[in-house]
Design the sequence.
C-alpha cells in the first residue's frame, strides 16, 4: 500500500486579499493585499524611530491595524535587518527599514518573512504581501478573496489584547545625575537584559519647549525621542527642576514610575507629614513653627526630651539632631533659626533602640524589607552613616502601613521607613528615590526585575473600545 507520508503537501491557497497575522509584532489579525506584481512586502507604520545599540539596532513604530480606527494604536518593535530603497507603483522611491517577522497564514501554516515599514494610511490594506514573502507551495488566485481561515478584529478587545501582546522592546529613560551608582546601573543592566533600550538622562541637562500644541524636551541640542517609560532618580538638591522635567514628560503622555506631585510632596518633610496625618497614618508626633517666641511651646507639643530636630530638606540622616535635654533642644532650635533653616521638632521613639525598618514598595506591594541598625551610639540607622542591614519579616500591620503611605503619595516605587513603637508602626519617611543596593543585598531579591515587571504591565497598547451604535431615528 502507498505511504500517505509520500504524498505531496497540499498547496497554500491565497486570494488577492487575505486575513493574516503577525504574532511577533502583537498583530494577530491584519488584512493584507497579496500582490505577486510587487517584489517587496510592506506594513503600515507611523512614528518610526530607531533605538538600541549600533551593533544591534532596533526600530519601533506604531500601527492602526483596523482601517478607519485611528483610536486604536498598537506599538511594535523589531530588530532591523536592512535598510532598502523601494520604488512604489507610482514611481516614487523611499528608503525603508526592513524587519523580519513571522507570518501566520492560519491552519498551522507560518513562516518568516521580510517586510518594509512605510505609512500606508491612505491605502485600503494595512499590509502588502509581495512575491518574495510567498513560499514555493503558495498559489495565488487573483480573482478570489479570503481563502485562508476567517479572522476578526475582535482580537483587539481589552482582554484579548492583554493576552496576545508579546514582550516588545521598550525605550526607557532613567533620570539620574549619577550614571555609575549602583541603583542606576542595576536599572540599566536589568532593562537591557530584558531586551529593552535603557538610556540614562542627566536631569539638569534637559530643557523644555512649553507650548499647548507641541510640548518638547530637549537634551544636548536635540529633541528627546518618545519613551515608553521614565524612571525618575531625582536627587534632593535638584527636586524643583527635576520635578519640572517630569511634569513635561507627563504632559507628553509618557508613563512615569513616580509622578511629579508625589516626588515634590515626599521631599518636603512638613508637607509629607501633613499628608500622612491627613490619611491617618501613624507617625511620631511632629511640630513646626516659624516664630522664635514659640520655641518652648513647640517642644511641649511633642513631649519631653529627648526629641529630634530635623531639617525639612534633610536626606540620608544629614541635618537630623537628637536633643537629649530641653535646654539642648532650645540651643539646637536657636542655631537652626539663626541659619534661617526650616525644621521640624519630632517625638523620639526610645523603644526603637536605634533601629528602623525600610519597606520597599512597588505597585502597592511590599516586595522586600530590611531592618537597619545604627552604628555605635548613633541614633540614625542610615546605611550611608555606617548602619547595618539585614532582612526582616514584617507584621501585617506594618505592611499595611507601608502600603498606605506609598499610596498616599501615589508613588509607583517607594522606600517607606518606619519605627516599631509600643503603639504600632510609626512612619518616618517616604522616599521617592529609594536605593537598591542595601535592600537587594540584605533581602537577596532582584528588585529591579520586579520594577520592570510592573513597567511592562503598565506600558500596554490601548485596547479597541467598542463603537457606540447610532441611535435609531
Sequence:
Amino acid at each position: 500500500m502507498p505511504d500517505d507520508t509520500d504524498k505531496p503537501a497540499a498547496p497554500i491557497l491565497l486570494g488577492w486579499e487575505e486575513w493574516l497575522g503577525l504574532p511577533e509584532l502583537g498583530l494577530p489579525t491584519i488584512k493584507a493585499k497579496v500582490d505577486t506584481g510587487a517584489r517587496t512586502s510592506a506594513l503600515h507604520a507611523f512614528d518610526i524611530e530607531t533605538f538600541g545599540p549600533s551593533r544591534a539596532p532596533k526600530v519601533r513604530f506604531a500601527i492602526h491595524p483596523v482601517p478607519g480606527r485611528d483610536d486604536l494604536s498598537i506599538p511594535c518593535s523589531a530588530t532591523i535587518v536592512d535598510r532598502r530603497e523601494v520604488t512604489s507603483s507610482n514611481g516614487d522611491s523611499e528608503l525603508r527599514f526592513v524587519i523580519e517577522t513571522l507570518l501566520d497564514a492560519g491552519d498551522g501554516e507560518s513562516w518568516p518573512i521580510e517586510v518594509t515599514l512605510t505609512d500606508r494610511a491612505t491605502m485600503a490594506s494595512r499590509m502588502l504581501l509581495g512575491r518574495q514573502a510567498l513560499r514555493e507551495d503558495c498559489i495565488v488566485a487573483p480573482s478570489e478573496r479570503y481563502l485562508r481561515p476567517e479572522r476578526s478584529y475582535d482580537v483587539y478587545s481589552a482582554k484579548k489584547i492583554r493576552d496576545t501582546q508579546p514582550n516588545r522592546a521598550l525605550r526607557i529613560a532613567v533620570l539620574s545625575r549619577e550614571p555609575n551608582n549602583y541603583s542606576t546601573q542595576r536599572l540599566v543592566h536589568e532593562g537591557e537584559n530584558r531586551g529593552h533600550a535603557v538610556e540614562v538622562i542627566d536631569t539638569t541637562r534637559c530643557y523644555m519647549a512649553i507650548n499647548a500644541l507641541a510640548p518638547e524636551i530637549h537634551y544636548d541640542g536635540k529633541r528627546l525621542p518618545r519613551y515608553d517609560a521614565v524612571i525618575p532618580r531625582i536627587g534632593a538638591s535638584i527636586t524643583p527642576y527635576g520635578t519640572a522635567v517630569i511634569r513635561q514628560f507627563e504632559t507628553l503622555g509618557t508613563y512615569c514610575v513616580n509622578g511629579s506631585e508625589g516626588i515634590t510632596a515626599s521631599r518636603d518633610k512638613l508637607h509629607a507629614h501633613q499628608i500622612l496625618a491627613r490619611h491617618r497614618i501613624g507617625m511620631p508626633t511632629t511640630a513646626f513653627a516659624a516664630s522664635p517666641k514659640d520655641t518652648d511651646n513647640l517642644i511641649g507639643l511633642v513631649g519631653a526630651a529627648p526629641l529630634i530636630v530635623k531639617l525639612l530638606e534633610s536626606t540620608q540622616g544629614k541635618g537630623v539632631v537628637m536633643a537629649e535635654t530641653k535646654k539642648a533642644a532650645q540651643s539646637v532650635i536657636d542655631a537652626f533659626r539663626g541659619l534661617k533653616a526650616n525644621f521640624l521638632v519630632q517625638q523620639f521613639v526610645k523603644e526603637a533602640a536605634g533601629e528602623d525598618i525600610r519597606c520597599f514598595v512597588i505597585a502597592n506591594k511590599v516586595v522586600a524589607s530590611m531592618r537597619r541598625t545604627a552604628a555605635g551610639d548613633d541614633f540614625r540607622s542610615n546605611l550611608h552613616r555606617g548602619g547595618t542591614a539585614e532582612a526582616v519579616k514584617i507584621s501585617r500591620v506594618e505592611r499595611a502601613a507601608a502600603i498606605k503611605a506609598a499610596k498616599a503619595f501615589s508613588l509607583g516605587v517607594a522606600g517607606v521607613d518606619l519605627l516599631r513603637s509600643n503603639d504600632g508602626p510609626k512612619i518616618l519617611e517616604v522616599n521617592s528615590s529609594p536605593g537598591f543596593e542595601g535592600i537587594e543585598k540584605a533581602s537577596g531579591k532582584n528588585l529591579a526585575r520586579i520594577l520592570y515587571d510592573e513597567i511592562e504591565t503598565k506600558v500596554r497598547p490601548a485596547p479597541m473600545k467598542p463603537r457606540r451604535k447610532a441611535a435609531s431615528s
In short: The chain has four domains: 9-164, 171-266, 285-348, 352-458. The longest helix spans residues 239-251. The chain has a mean pLDDT of 86. The longest strand covers residues 74-87.
